[in-house]
Amino acid sequence: MNISPSFPEKRKKRAKKMDIDESADEWDISAKNNCIINLKNVCDVLLTHFGWRFETLNNVSSDFSFLTGSELFEKDTDELVKAAAGLALKYNKDLNVSELTEEIIHFKHHAISALPSIKNTSPLELLEFIFEYSMTNIFSNICIALRLYLTLPCTTATCERSFSKLKLIKTYLRSTINQTKLTNLALLSIEKEISNSIDFDSVINDFAEVKARKIKF
């Protein structure tokens, strides 16, 4: 990048040693070498975390791999049924094993007959195909599985921002705040743009009318 790096040397502080102290080898590392060591440590940590994250996502993605056009076209019915049963067992709160295995058999024939380029069809296009022909009630479990598959790669920035906001809200002076109030304050802080656009006078008036103790005769 044609950038000349500059590593200014700082005066090193040396601790005074007593005669009873054991002698130790002192390593004088230059500012340039120290920068290289720190950069390599950062790169090692990043590569390790990226490798772990992609490996985990790849393992999860392999469970949904039968929901692509190429897999539907190339795999036989028994393999698709086995893969669908394994997926339904892992997500048993969202998917039904018997219904998903039956749906995948019929969906394979529908997709091959209706989609001319089935080999190049993505999961998003399969979901759009189900909604386009109003087959959500027929293939409800496949629709849920596709939606799960398509929302898995979403970023975790929202969750991390929530934790950052909680750290700012629940301070040492607010350690006894209850869960309901903490949740409401965090939601107002996260959705700052929406909360700034709210007319609080009307909200206060509505709240006063609901909580009014005066009885109208």
Task: Summarize it.
The protein is mainly alpha-helical and 217 residues long. Helix content is 62%, strand content 0%.
If you had to describe this structure to a student in words, what would you say it looks like?
The structure is a single chain. With 217 residues, the chain is mainly alpha-helical. 62% of the residues lie in helices and 0% in strands. The chain contains 10 helices and no strands. Helix 3 crosses helix 4, helix 5 runs antiparallel to helix 6 and helix 7 (157-169) packs across helix 8. It is flat, with a radius of gyration of 30 Å.
Topology, please?
Layout: H1 31-63, H2 69-74, H3 77-90, H4 97-114, H5 123-132, H6 140-151, H7 157-169, H8 179-190, H9 192-196, H10 200-211
Rg over alpha carbons: 30 Å
Described by the principal axes of the CA atoms, the overall outline is: flat
Separation of termini? 82 Å
Number of H- or I-type helical stretches: 10
Number of extended strands: 0
Q: Give the H and E element order.
A: HHHHHHHHHH
Major sheet attributes: none
**Fraction of residues in H or I helices:** 55-70%
Mean pLDDT rating: 83
Overall SS class: mainly alpha
Beta-strand content estimate: under 5%
Low-pLDDT runs of 5+ residues are none
